[in-house]
Amino acid sequence: MLCTYPIDTPRHGGQIRVSKIVNHYRQAGFQVEVVGVLGSDNYPVSAGFEPSPPIGELAKILENPFLMEDVAISQLYESHDQYFSNLAKQIKKVPGLIHVEQPWLFGFAQRYIKEKLSHRCRLIYGSQNIEYQLKAAILKSYFTVEQVVQCEQQVKQLEMRAVTEADGVVCVSQHDLEWLRRYTQKPIVLAPNGVSEWQVTEQGIDEANQVTCHQKFALFCASGHPPNVKGFFDLFGRGFGAMNNNETIVIAGGASSAIGGDDRVHQSAKLAARITLAGIVSDSCLSGLLHTAHCIVLPITQGGGTNLKTAEALWSGRHIVATTTAMRGFEVFIGQQGVHVTNNPAIFKQQLRKVMAAPPLELNQLDHESRAIVLWEQCLKPLSLFITKIAPEQHNEG
Amino acid sequence: MKANQQIIWINVTTSANWNRPVVGVVRVESELKTHLQRLYPEGFVKECIWLGNQFVEYLDKQESITEGVNSEVKDPVQNKEPNLLYPVLPRRVALEMIAQGFLSIMPAKLRPIVSRFLLISKRKIARILASKNYHRIRAGISREHSSDRSTVSFKNNHQESLFNAGDVLISVGLDWEDPGLLEEFSRLKEQEAVRIVTCCYDLIPCLFPQYCVSDVATRFTQYFIDLANNSDLILCISRQSENDLKQLLNQTGAAQVETQVFQLGDNVPEAKDSMMSDEIKSILTEPFILFVSTIERRKNHQVLYQAYHLLCQQGKKAQLPKLVFVGMAGWGVDDLLRDIQLDPLTQGLILQCNHVTDAELRSLYDAALCCVYPSLYEGWGLPVGEALALGKIVLSSDRGSLPEVGGDLVTYIDPWNPADWAAQIWRVITDLEYQKTLREKVKSSYQSRSWQGVARSIKPKLDELIEKPFTTQVLYPGYDCMSEVGKRIGPVIRSNGKAGILFTGPNKAMPAGAFRVTIWDEPNAREVGRYKLSFLVGNNVIAEQANLAIQQAVGLNTPLITMDFHLESPVNSLNVQCQLISGELSIVRLEIKAQ
Known about the structure:
heterodimer; A: alpha/beta; 13 strands; B: Jelly Rolls; 3 domains; six-stranded parallel beta sheet; 21 helices; 24 strands
């Protein structure tokens, strides 16, 4: 498994997905080694991972690597002999199949197979998104149109190479699958993002109560990834009247400080007064928040993948107010009891108000069971069979 | 407990504190009070004022402004205010000016640091100023310094609320100037079951912040969101204002509050005082066109000046009547007033009058050749109605609510087109037949709106509010109650194996009547034991069932218990209290229904 973040303590969606895929492969009888490059200084040192390259090195590759570090890393580890060699040394076992999660280390993997292996090694591209579209959407807020187009092209080139040259592709949504199918005839498998069952503890509820002060609340749990912040302001900007005086939106995760420190929170009337910033919370607190929330909001307007938080929201059994982007991969639940979907900011806010005034959602046993397809074990189920077909000799039940 | 009689209260804080010439909001508050008092039986409609921390009854007897009845009675509040060298500013403006003054005396090097500090502290200071403690201290100080005011004018009762559950409070004054007032509306509505009626004059600060002193769009959007949240009914002075309000509430996802349009009365005060300034006397000797409005950018005096300039350019100066602006100069019109002062073409044609008395205004209306109103936007447009009520020809802008006021009796002109204004003004002053036709049409067709009619138009809605039955209250103990021995888990309170008060709440006002409380729990979480259920008003137990058994549930759709109680009269604070003696319970919700 090649990726640009460690999975010892998975936090964000990408880490959790890789961690679950690795566990799934192992449980299916494969031997798995996780190797990569730390895509940011913020990640802790981890066995099998090269440290994040100095910005000076990245600047030799791209004039301005800001928000384009992944592209620079991609080129550095494919083209620079020393960096290539360092990463190659991290691979201790001889691989029969390499799963490259996201396109950034795909070039490295191809060179590694070509130069270091004498046998045929299959390559799987793990797509989490339509990367070039997402990158363009993120960069739009920071760069000129020309710069955005240029960066978009660079990402697209990497992505298309991974899509077209891999032996098989793993994707996260039907929408992405259809897009991928236009570019490759190789096998593609849909393995959406999922969620692990969690147990709420007394401690978790106490921690959640400390955050919420027993107010009725809607939960927005997200990383500080720019699309999450943008989506929040896209939906809740221009005045926010969706909450009553004794209600609040609890923002948990990296999005908390990103939103709290953004001027736009004070420019949308009443928004600052209606949010509670929980910051990055422990797993127990998160499970307490999910358990005590009245509603979960998924104001996501960008991105082509699927949202782990959507799976989490569905499994929590709380009311959900979401965009169609947030529901990507979970379309089957749109219109079901307690799932409200709209992309119109005014209707999103009105819907949130209605949901907050509604009684707590009570799913019957059947509805609850129907949501089990969002659990990781269900989501990744097709994966082991898929790679067994691609690289049958790698399967080792022992 | 208080007597079981619902009262309509009118918040007259704005008019009670007003000591300048009457403006629209003051007139609305005062006229509504007077005419509602006449519509309802004596003692049914009472006045109250907001002291910054509580409402108290106001016993002054000021009558209708337009009718001037009992005008000898002096406003006690006005009596006590000394003549001030400078006008009293709204708190926000005053704070900004203090901060600016403070900065200007700072050494230049320190200014950025102090400015940053002030910026950081802004929200904190605002919170302090909005806090109940601040208002309490302020009210305390103000009482110390004006003890006679409270003893003469207010019927105070600091221990008990002024209101009964089901009372109606109408507040149509300058409510946006005191954020604490809206917080009190929220508390009164939620805790004391008072029905709140407020007013939306217009959404100009939200829709046209460029015409306001500073960027107030966010502040006023917040105000309207709060207003919708904290009101049972919002009176809107035009369909335009109602539409604007609903659009804003939709866009922000705010509460969908009930609204009612009430069109303002347009009876102009009678000219009782024959004393007239020399300036007005002089104006009345010649023909003139009248524009009654404060002078500010939105009112668009600019287009009239441009129209007059164009007409003068065309060599028509000698035939032009004077153009009289009645109103104080406001913000952002210095350049315009300077242009008018210096323009040799229009010199002497455009006059501005300030501090005009009601009698003088009436005389000006009576003598005007026609009235103009080129405003870029209005929530209503009272001067158009007043001019029509006096049979005047009106040339008006077609924007905002103005067509609602004038119907088809007014000549509408694009407010951005000076040439059209020039052409229409010229036609009215030169085409005597046209003038006659317009005037006769107004005189024969315009239906004047009396304030009595206005009061009558809102009475049915007020009656509905008064008669509105108690609606079933669904309470979620985790949010609405307190617990001594239980754990609050979202909406639920779950026992923890300890004896004691499992929940108590909601501490809310209730009307008189018979009620049934149903308590729902999670049947699967029950463990056999005993509990006590009590109903308390303040500290007094009014009903109780001791030693109730917790038994295994027989079905999932069976409540834990149902219990009835009766209130002889409205109460300010009712609590349902569950004391767990033994066993386990997990309480999901309480329903209180009228029987």
